[in-house]
Design a protein that fits this description.
four-stranded mixed sheet; 63% helix; 22 helices; 2 domains; mainly alpha
Length: 488
Amino acid sequence: MLRRIKNIVAKNKLIIFLLFIGIFLRFYKLEEFATFLGDQGRDAIIIKRIITFEHLPAIGPTSSVGGVFLGPFFYYLMAPFLLIFNLNPLGLAFGTAFLTIIGLISSYFIIRKEINKQTGLIFLVLYVFSSIQIEYSRFSWNPNLLPLFSFFTLYFFYQSVLSKKYFWSLLFGSFLAFSLQLHYLALFLFITIIVFLIVHQLRHKQFLISYFSHFLLSLISFLFFFSPLIIFDLKHHFINLNSFINLFTNQKVLAPSSSFDRLLITINSFFASVLKINLNSYFSLTIFLFLIYYFFRKKSFIKNPFLQLNFLNFFLYLFFFSLLNTNRYPHYYGQIYLSFFLVLAFIFAQKIRQFWFKILIIIFLITYIILNAKDYKFLYLKGNKQIWRAKIIAQSIIDEKPQTPYQVVPIPYTEMDGHIRYFLEILGQRPLSEASADQPKELYILCYEKECDALNHPQWQIAAFKNKKVDKIWKIDRVRIYKLIHKK
């Protein structure tokens, strides 16, 4: 047994080395650099209440556009990690990094099995050293896990179609529901899946009839895991569905500018995010068109349904996303990062047997690693210790022994205080909810500006605090805290 293990290690030294680098880059100085601001604090409060069975939510956070609620899957997924870490919010960042590593290893073995070892190896290099993937694996946020869940959704769909085993159909439906609850841009997965099914039907005339029972099982699985959000909508007069419809009818979500210009911007911003270099827009378009040309030219592409599916995901997403009137943030491309790595790795693996191509590919990969390594700030900088900072601010308020009920409010209104509220709650001094209209006995203002007009600020919680005076002012870290009480 020991000899067998040694042989496996000897044959896979490079893979094991890369995996250790991937683990190191995702866990090194995690506590110092983990983002823990208002959004993460808000999520941590909800997850903490799940753990203590105080509240089991049927909805998740709101999307950044349109006020549409996501599903609650992310909260339940991360709850065990917060519990293991005894409510230390570092557990949420650890959970994200841990799940990313599991996905990293699993995706390599999937590609090795479904395509070949060379493609898996190059894919692993692209994934391990990707600074955007490293960044999103080092803190807790619902879009951060979309690259993995969308990739596995496509894999389970592929297995469902080819093997026609009900197990894969169940996994496909559930992971599609999970992906959609991580971010609504995962709706584009439906386009990829539908196009693939149409192509498959054209090649195999009786396919859709034979696949119907699997489709039905996937639909049941999808609806089961998406049911909390459906039930919520049914109970609240379809508030979420109406917001979603309003997003497309009244908020001009479809961009009015030139289709070609939008496509150029979309493609260029994607390559800038993934390759960490600002390319000329037309050069980015040339790369994109070359990938399309290579896909249709290579028989090995056309013959491999898994490659087909990932290429369709990459191509169709960029095309349809370019129609939307929205910013091009890096996390908006979460659905296609791993599909792109796979397509690129496959092309390189096909060419690596030729000497000059091998030299060029090695140069590309070294350059790729160097460009991405410039963003590994945790290797050479000190972290801002956001978890620790939130805790000491909260502790300073607790040290004042606030009379309950009390309220906490940030200035300016663009700041959030969820991270402070989280520690106030777990340390036993829960303030009123930020939406509460109850009159508190004390009001604590978190001023993120140099000075704040604590008595006359128009923020509604401050304006509604009656007969007020400033009792105390102190500064913790970069936050000035005003304690307001009622005049006697």
